[in-house]
Structures are given as structure tokens and as C-alpha cells.
Design a protein that fits this description.
Layout: E1 4-8, H1 34-43, E2 46-53, H2 64-76, E3 83-88, H3 104-112, E4 121-124, H4 127-135, E5 140-144, E6 158-159, H5 162-171
Parallel strand pairs: 1-2, 1-4, 2-3, 4-5, 5-6
Helix pairs in contact: 1-5
Length: about 170
């Protein structure tokens, strides 16, 4: 039997993005209800997976990979279920298959964790995440409002935070 996954980005679904656009541990804050939402998903049999594009390492002398993994461990320490983090660190110009909206990160999740993507849910905080989910056959796509206003998909449900969205998913079975 295949697993179902709850897939989301980190910034906009779980944590806030710092004002300067750089991930900084000191500025990192969980969004209202995001940690309880992750715990509810885990308790209901979802494999938790965060997929995100990241910047190249060592820009401006900053060890960006170290910061990313520090934030990852900080989130992991608050969640009861295992949570998987998958990143694309490649530059936009490189021809990789993993930089969202390409599908490599989600295909690896399906393969490595025995996930049926058609039975999974994407909590999307950007149109890039929506496009990626659609390409791999995730039908249950829920938008999380981040204030970015980059939505093209008015027909998808939208919630103000991950907690509200998760409660809806769980109550509808």
C-alpha cells in the first residue's frame, strides 16, 4: 500500500520569510498554527514533506546551507512525526530537474517514501508550487494566503494559514 503525503513549501506555509528576503534564524517565526497543523497531518497518516528552492551557498560570505539546516532542525524539533525536507540549490540557469516548477523533488519523494502523489495534498503558498503539484498529478491543491498575490488559480480553495487548511482536509476525510 502506498503512502499519502502532505507537501508544502517552508516559507509562507510554516515560517515567515524575513523582510530582506534572506533566511535568517534570528528572524524565523512559525506562522500561526503551522506546527499544530503539521502534527495533525502526521497523526492522520500523512508523510510530511517540505519542498523548496534555495539560494546557492556562500553568497555574500553567508553559509546559507548551514542556516537552512538550522531552520530545518528547529522545525523538526517541534513536530512529532518525521518531516522530510527536499531542496533544490541549483541556480535558475542550470538545467536540473529539481528546481520548482520542475518535478524532480516530488518524484524523488514518491519514489523514496513510496508515496502515491494522486492521493496526496499540496498546501501551496505560490503559483510555482501549484504548477509543480499539477504536473505530478496531485489533485488536492490548497492555497495558503501569504500576501504575495501571485495567484492564477481562482478555482482552488484558499485559507489564511496552514492550520485552517489542515482542519478542512482532515474533516473532509
Amino acid at each position: 500500500m502506498k503512502n499519502k503525503a502532505a507537501v508544502m513549501g517552508r516559507n509562507g506555509s510554516i515560517v515567515t520569510m524575513p523582510k530582506n528576503g534572506r533566511l535568517n534564524v534570528a528572524d524565523c517565526r512559525t506562522l500561526d498554527g503551522s506546527i499544530p497543523a503539521l502534527n495533525i497531518l502526521g497523526q492522520n497518516g500523512y508523510i510530511l514533506s517540505v519542498v523548496t528552492n534555495e539560494k546557492d551557498n556562500a553568497k555574500d560570505g553567508i553559509d546559507y546551507h548551514r542556516i537552512v539546516h538550522h531552520v530545518e532542525n528547529w522545525i523538526r524539533g517541534q513536530v512529532y512525526s518525521p518531516i522530510h525536507f527536499r531542496y533544490c540549490y541549483h541556480h535558475h540557469a542550470k538545467k536540473c530537474d529539481c528546481r520548482l516548477p520542475k518535478t524532480g523533488l516530488l518524484k524523488a519523494l514518491a519514489r523514496d517514501e513510496n508515496v502515491d502523489l494522486s492521493q496526496s495534498v499540496m498546501f501551496a503558498s505560490s503559483k510555482v508550487e501549484i504548477a509543480t503539484a499539477q504536473k505530478v498529478g496531485i489533485e488536492n491543491i490548497i492555497r495558503i494566503e501569504t500576501g504575495k498575490a501571485d495567484w492564477d488559480n481562482d478555482d482552488l480553495p484558499i485559507y489564511t494559514n496552514l492550520y485552517e487548511a489542515v482542519n478542512e482536509v482532515i474533516s473532509n476525510g
